[in-house]
Design goal:
By secondary structure, the chain is mainly beta. Among the domains are: about 210 residues, Galactose-binding domain-like (Jelly Rolls), CATH 2.60.120; about 90 residues, Immunoglobulins (Immunoglobulin-like, Sandwich), CATH 2.60.40; about 150 residues, Jelly Rolls. About 15% of the residues lie in helices and about 35% in strands. The chain contains seven helices and 44 strands. Strand 23, helix 2 and strand 24 form a beta-alpha-beta unit.
Length: about 725
């Protein structure tokens, strides 16, 4: 280690001070507008820990040396500069290169402790480093940490001298998708629902001076039934004084011993809610005798979260005793330029502001833990949060031990945020194991929030909600005597906007052809969700998803955050339960939902012209619709179809004088479908829908319908899972 540090110093002297001119953003497929604001002198300059803030600190974000070497080797030189805190794989790091499981990523930089910090302890903080990290300061190892999403610190007082230069060196290894650790959507082979990995530093690195006798941590638990917040301050002081403020006015204070639960009663309390996210300022002081040795600033919100029955006896999640139908985004928290790290704090805030503007009141933070400032903005702006624990994909060996350690770290680090109203222990069985024990563990560590034992498909009967996933959906499980019914994922409507995609090819669970169609499709889903709220007792919904992510194009916002794809006003109204009048259908060509309709069909590719009215289809088979397999959701099968493709034709007669004022298609398809009227394509869609639904056609389609004989032609292609197709035409008014 000493020889490596001497080499580092020589290399630094030889290279000189590189400065900002040595850094530029690495090439990437896409970036946000905030990326152009980022540089070595302003990389995430905001104070990173808003729930425990001190006046003095030193931000170490900026340019560091880096090297990538084989796993057991030490660097013999530096590969270049990296912009911390952006992961090495990201464009904003200036590197844009993956680190493989057999490699180690090294960091190095110099810094100077301010001279006026003399006499104080110096703490070195890391917001998050993914995954296994060792830290040296001036050649002495000061920390070793495993975990990709939680903060850790080191007391480096003995290794530094105020006013003198010092060196930090890190080594980081990350097995990503080949290891037992929780990793969420990270993979070495990005594609589909899994994304570019993050290795190394991806949150702020900073120094902080603290007194010899100081506050080490805060735990703040609201208790609205008793108009108080319970304050627990771990500290090596003799006495704690905590005072709550409404603006500049003190509204409560408590004095007591460190490490004990102190009851801070608030006079005339104001509750925190999505509609009115009121936050109290909190000042916590540590005393030794009559001398105040430390002060930290924090905040808290008074709110309660519990289950309770509504007027019909249905179990509902209650915020401050009130049922709020929770309408949320599935929020992945990925960025095209920073991957797990937002380019700026403004960008981080923008995501939450836009979520609220679109009428959502909740976000399910999906198998990712954010920097604390994300939760600060959720607290301040009034967004409810379901917080997933990051998913592992292993259940043997060290995986359970690592999972529990990182679960405990998440619960401890983010306990103070009133926006978090539910902990989600597992997602869809990914790395799921020993679920009842984890539910009991979470309950023992935090009984102030609800618990979701498993979101989607792998419910074990525990926790406070029963959660299903349905794509596109929606649907609802039945509420239980002790658990509320929630729809943890649905939707996934895909739409690619040229110039705003990560790759040429993208996918969604179901494709909407235009922005107007996406708006209509979304409104239909939400209308049904609100019906399920009243008919079946559904209490919360989570739509997939906030933004596109890499090849996923099922966000309501493009990945570069440039465009809200659907009509934002209409979406906001739908999310709040305000809908346009329902469409009344007048069939022109009925589907086979009620009465079986006869079609000509073939599973062998037909010749040219098969879509036209004059094509001779007498050699095709004949049978009743719909066509598919009975196991397909929503299918009404008249004829079994179980091959890859099917072509359908159906003649129908239109009486003279028939008008078609608002042309719609009524269709159920699984998967890709294209529909032709008298030889002209009138509708196409990819993916599957799961039920019959109507979709507006272009007004010009009315001119294709003619008195007398007409032909409807359909091609459906099976790609995976269920398969089914049935088509009709309606006039909708």
């Amino acid at each position: 280690m000493k020889s490596r540090l001497l080499l580092a110093a020589c290399l630094l002297l030889a290279a000189g001070l590189a400065g900002a001119q040595d850094w530029k953003m690495a090439p990437g497929p896409l970036k946000t507008r905030w990326a152009d604001e980022v540089g070595p002198n302003n990389a995430l300059p905001e104070y990173p820990r808003p729930t425990m803030k001190r006046a003095e600190w030193l931000n170490l974000n900026g340019l560091w040396d880096y090297a990538i070497v084989s796993r057991e080797a030490e660097p013999q030189g530096w590969d270049g500069k990296i912009l911390v805190p952006f992961a090495v794989e990201s464009a904003l790091s200036g590197v844009g290169r993956s680190v493989l499981p057999f490699e180690t990523l090294w960091y190095h930089r110099t810094f100077t402790v301010p001279a006026d910090w003399t006499g104080q302890r110096v703490l070195l903080h890391f917001g998050a480093v993914d995954w296994a990290t060792k830290v040296w300061v001036n050649g002495t190892q000061v920390a070793e940490h495993e975990g990709g999403y939680d903060a850790f610190s080191a007391d480096i007082t003995a290794q530094v001298r105020p006013g003198q230069a010092a060196e930090i060196t890190l080594s980081v290894s990350d097995p990503t998708s080949e290891g037992p650790q929780p990793r969420g959507k990270q993979t070495l082979r990005p594609g589909g629902i899994f994304y570019t990995p993050t290795t190394g530093i991806w949150q702020t690195v900073w120094l902080e001076p603290v007194a010899q006798r100081s506050v080490e941590s805060l735990r703040l638990t609201p208790d609205t039934a008793n108009d108080r917040v319970v304050v627990r301050a771990e500290a090596n002081v003799e006495r704690i004084v905590a005072t709550a403020y409404d603006g500049d006015r003190a509204v409560g204070t408590v004095t007591g011993a460190p490490g004990s639960d102190l009851s801070l009663v608030v006079s005339n309390p104001k509750l925190w809610s999505p509609q009115r996210p009121f936050l109290y300022r909190l000042i916590v002081q540590g005393y030794v005798g009559n001398q105040m040795t430390d002060r930290v600033d924090s905040y808290f919100g008074l709110r309660s979260v519990r289950l309770g029955r509504d007027a019909k006896g249905v179990q509902r999640p209650l915020i401050n005793g009130e049922f709020i139908f929770q309408v949320g985004f599935l929020d992945q928290g990925y960025w095209p330029d920073g991957i797990l790290t937002a380019p700026t704090d403004e960008a981080l805030r923008w995501d939450i502001e836009k979520t609220l503007e679109l009428g959502f009141n909740m976000a399910r933070k999906h198998v990712k833990v954010e920097p604390e400032r994300w939760y600060y903005w959720a607290d301040k702006l009034g967004l409810l949060v379901w917080q997933d624990q990051v998913s592992p994909f292993a259940t043997d060996g060290d995986a359970p031990r690592i999972y529990e350690r990182e679960l405990r770290a998440m619960l401890r680090q983010f306990h103070n945020h009133p926006s978090i109203v539910m902990w989600v222990v597992f997602n869809e069985g990914w790395g799921q194991h020993d679920t009842p024990r984890y539910v009991d563990l979470v309950r023992s560590l935090d009984n102030s929030r609800l618990i979701n034992n498993a979101s989607g498909w792998t419910d074990t009967g525990g926790g406070d909600v029963i959660d299903i996933h349905v794509y596109p959906g929606p649907d609802s499980p039945d509420p239980e005597p002790t658990r509320a019914a929630v729809l943890g994922e649905f939707g996934g409507l895909g739409l690619a906007l040229s110039g705003h995609t990560w790759a040429a090819e993208g996918w969604g669970y179901r494709t909407s052809a235009t922005r107007a169609k996406l708006t209509d499709d979304y409104i239909k889903l939400l209308r049904r969700c609100y019906q399920l709220k009243d008919e079946k007792g559904l209490s919360a919904i989570v739509y997939t998803q906030t933004t596109d992510v890499e090849v996923e194009i099922n966000g309501l916002i493009t990945y570069d955050r440039a465009i809200v794809k659907p009509d934002p006003v209409a979406i906001a109204k739908a999310n709040r339960g305000i809908f346009p009048p329902p469409v009344v259908e007048y069939p022109i060509v009925p589907t086979s939902e009620n009465v079986k309709q006869t079609w000509r069909y073939t599973t062998t590719e037909p010749g040219d012209g098969w879509i036209g009215a004059e094509f001779n289809d007498t050699g095709w088979s004949q049978g009743p619709g719909g066509f598919g397999v009975a196991s397909t959701p929503g299918a009404i099968v008249g004829t079994v179809w179980n091959t890859e493709n099917i072509w359908l034709r159906r003649e129908f007669t239109v009486p003279a004088g028939t008008t078609w004022s608002k042309p719609y298609i009524r269709v159920h398809h699984d998967e890709d479908v294209e529909v032709y009227l008298n030889g002209t394509r009138i509708y196409t869609a990819e993916g599957f829908v799961g039920e019959y639904d109507i979709h507006a056609l272009d007004a010009s389609v009315t001119g294709l319908l003619r008195p007398g004989r007409n032909v409807l032609a359909v091609h459906c292609r099976q790609t995976r899972g269920g398969q089914f197709v049935d088509v009709g035409l309606v006039d909708a008014r």
